[in-house]
Specification:
It is a single chain. With 345 residues, this protein is an alpha/beta fold. The chain has one domain (2-214, 272-300): Alpha-Beta Barrel (TIM Barrel), CATH 3.20.20.100. Helix content is 41%, strand content 15%. The chain is built from 15 helices and 12 strands. The chain has helices spanning 2-6, 40-52, 68-76, 106-120, 139-151, 165-174, 195-202, 216-219, 222-225, 243-260, 264-273, 288-296, 304-316, 326-329, 339-343; strands at residues 9-11, 16-18, 22-24, 57-59, 86-91, 93-96, 99-102, 125-130, 155-161, 179-183, 205-209, 279-281. It has an 8-stranded parallel beta sheet, with helices on one face. Strands 1-2 form a two-stranded antiparallel ribbon. Strands 6-7 form a two-stranded antiparallel sheet. α2 links the parallel β3 and β4. The longest helix is centred in the last third of the chain and has 18 residues, at 243-260. The relative contact order is 0.14. The mean pLDDT is 90.
């Protein structure tokens, strides 16, 4: 059964148990990332179907849909579904005067957590991430407030997203980090040099977002044909400026998938699953068909030779283009000031 294939993976070394595959919920609420919001009843049914199928690890953020995604998750968790699911949400993105900044100030961390609890209508957040790292404040200061939230029972486990290795180490000295969430797929592998080894040394789980290359490893150039203009993927260099070059990777993955009797999306997702039992991908979808396909990826077995072949596609054809729009790139793998400089002010 599907639920037997996806359930019961220990994420990190602090005790959090989640499904081996999660569900990224961002695209359900629009907000200019992946098109307009989808009908709420349809999304509630999809999420509940995922939970009933064993995909119980739900990923959201206060920034997705500008709070509306958390409200959607909160409605989904009624009727006994809260007890079946593990909820991961995030703080850090803050709209200011029409712009967005990253904030790790303790007062903001606390207010963001309490607001998320209210929107989700739950007593405790299972996994609470810093969505991005505030480079104006030592990570130890942000972590100090998160530690207090754990001690108060408002948060069970703490995570970081797109943090560099040194930030992960510094944060972990204040309170154990349970999971680090980063983009990781066949064609996004920069975290393998330092971040993955650091996490494994410290006993930190790894959550892979965009494991299918934001959909490109599922559809190739066809992905862009039907996207609305507000979809942020239409402004990502890797998916636009260099699409003719990068489509070769998709074509190679798709050809191999055809030989194995699966879809390109399933093969790309299976590669992530084969990276270790400490890795949980969280593919996002708004369609039941895609959800079922994603779950099916757990049943695909890859030999060491097949894994090496898949990885050679991205090495032989060097991926061109940044994976994010320019604004987002400034918030990736950034270091924070040393704690000594903060204490001296």
């Amino acid at each position: 059964m599907a639920s037997e294939r996806v359930s019961g993976l220990k994420l990190g070394s602090q005790g959090l148990v989640v499904s081996a595959q999660g569900l990224g919920c961002m695209s359900m609420s629009g907000s200019g990332f992946f098109g307009p919001p989808k009908p709420e009843p349809d999304m509630i049914n999809l999420i509940r179907h995922a939970i009933d199928s064993g995909v119980t690890f739900l990923d959201t953020s206060d920034f997705y849909g500008f709070n509306t995604n958390e409200i959607l998750i909160g409605k989904t968790l009624k009727d006994g579904y809260r007890e079946k699911a593990q909820i991961a949400t995030k703080f850090g993105y803050r709209p200011i005067d029409g712009k967005v900044e990253v904030c790790g100030d303790p007062a903001y961390v606390r207010s963001a957590c309490e607001a998320s609890l209210k929107r989700l209508d739950i007593d405790c957040i299972d996994l609470y991430y810093a969505h991005r790292i505030d480079t104006s404040i030592p990570i130890e200061i942000t972590m100090g407030e998160l530690k207090k939230l754990v001690e108060e029972g408002k948060v069970k486990y703490i995570g970081l997203s797109e943090a560099c290795a040194s930030t992960i180490r510094r944060a972990h000295t204040v309170h154990p980090i349970t999971a680090v969430q980063n983009e990781w797929s066949l064609w996004t592998r920069d975290l393998e040099d330092e971040i993955i080894p650091t996490c494994r040394e410290l006993g930190i789980g790894i959550v892979s977002y965009s494991p299918i290359g934001k959909g490109f490893l599922a559809q190739g150039p066809k992905l862009l044909e039907n996207l609305p203009e507000i979809d942020v993927r239409k402004r990502m260099p890797r998916l636009t400026n260099h699409v003719e070059h990068n489509k070769i990777i998709f074509e190679q993955v798709n050809e191999m998938a055809t030989r194995k009797g699966c879809t390109a999306a399933q093969l790309a997702l299976a590669w992530v699953h084969h990276q270790g039992t400490d890795v949980v991908p969280i593919p996002g979808t708004t369609k039941l068909e895609n959800l079922h396909q994603n779950i099916g990826a757990l049943s695909i077995n890859l030999t060491p030779e097949e894994i090496a072949k898949l990885e050679s596609f991205a090495f032989d054809v060097i991926v061109k283009g940044e994976r994010h729009v320019s604004m987002q790139r400034t918030w990736i793998y950034s270091e924070t000031p040393p704690l000594s400089s903060w204490e001296g002010n």
